[in-house]
């Protein structure tokens, strides 16, 4: 019987050695796996940073392009307004003459008066199509940004800083003044 016991001891020793080898091998594989996972995490972090950088560059480029598009659209509109204003500036004396003719020819032949009214209406429609608006009416509040005060008077019937007389109408396209209105201001300080 003692032999059998010795064999069992050998088997246990062999099994113990094999177990130690398997455990050491498992620990070595586990260490390699941890190392691979660490490398993968490092690469992932690096790639995420790179993606973030490219996304930032793309967003900045998209914003720059959008600003460029808006700026060029505004410049085109501004060029159109400037060209229209320059052309209309040459027509304003004609519009003034037609308005003076209408004001001074009240007792003229009705056919002549009708012809001048037609011309005036055509000019008004043309200005409307070009988005040209006239301003400067008696009773309006004086605004030095769009009105040119020629003189001032005291008039109890009119409000303070109001227009009492218009010598020449003003015109603008959008917010751009083509010609300032020449006016007389009542009750200003």
Brief sketch in words of this structure:
This protein has about 190 residues and is an alpha+beta fold. It has helices at about 1-105, 110-130, and strands at about 130-135, 145-155, 160-170, 170-175, 175-180, 180-185. The strands form 2 sheets. Strands 1-4-5 form a 3-stranded antiparallel β-sheet.
Describe this structure in words.
The chain is an alpha+beta fold and 189 residues long. The chain is built from two helices and six strands. The chain has helices at residues 2-104, 110-129, and strands at residues 132-135, 147-153, 162-168, 170-173, 176-179, 181-186. A three-stranded antiparallel β-sheet has the order 1-4-5. The protein has a three-stranded mixed β-sheet with strand order 2-6-3, with no helix packed on it. Helix 1 runs antiparallel to helix 2. It is rod-shaped. The relative contact order is 0.08.
N-to-C CA distance:
133 Å
The tally of helices reads: 2
Radius of gyration: 45 Å
Strand order of the largest sheet: 1-4-5
**Major β-sheet annotation:** 3 strands, antiparallel
The proportion of residues forming helix, as a percent range, comes to 55-70%
Name the helix and strand elements from N-terminus to C-terminus, one letter apiece: HHEEEEEE
By secondary-structure content and strand pairing, the structural class works out as: alpha+beta
Strand content range: 15-25%
| Overall number of strands | 6
Unreliable residue stretches: none
Q: Which shape, going by the Cα principal axes? A: rod-shaped
Quote the average pLDDT.
86
């Amino acid at each position: 019987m003692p032999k059998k016991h010795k064999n069992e001891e050998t088997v246990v020793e062999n099994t113990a050695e094999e177990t130690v080898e398997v455990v050491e091998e498992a620990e070595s594989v586990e260490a390699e796996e941890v190392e691979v996972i660490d490398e993968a995490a490092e690469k992932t972090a690096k790639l995420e940073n790179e993606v973030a950088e490219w996304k930032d560059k793309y967003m900045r480029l998209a914003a720059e392009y959008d600003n460029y598009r808006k700026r060029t659209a505004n410049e085109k509109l501004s060029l159109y307004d400037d060209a229209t204003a320059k052309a209309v500036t040459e027509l304003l004396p004609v519009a003034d003459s037609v308005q003076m003719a209408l004001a001074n020819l009240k007792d003229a032949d009705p056919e002549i008066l009708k012809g001048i009214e037609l011309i005036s209406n055509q000019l008004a429609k043309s200005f409307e199509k070009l988005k040209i608006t006239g301003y400067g009416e008696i009773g309006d509040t004086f605004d030095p940004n769009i009105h040119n005060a020629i003189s001032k008077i005291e008039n109890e019937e009119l409000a303070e800083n109001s227009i009492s007389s218009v010598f020449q109408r003003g015109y603008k396209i959008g917010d751009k003044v083509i010609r300032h209105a020449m006016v007389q201001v009542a009750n200003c300080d």
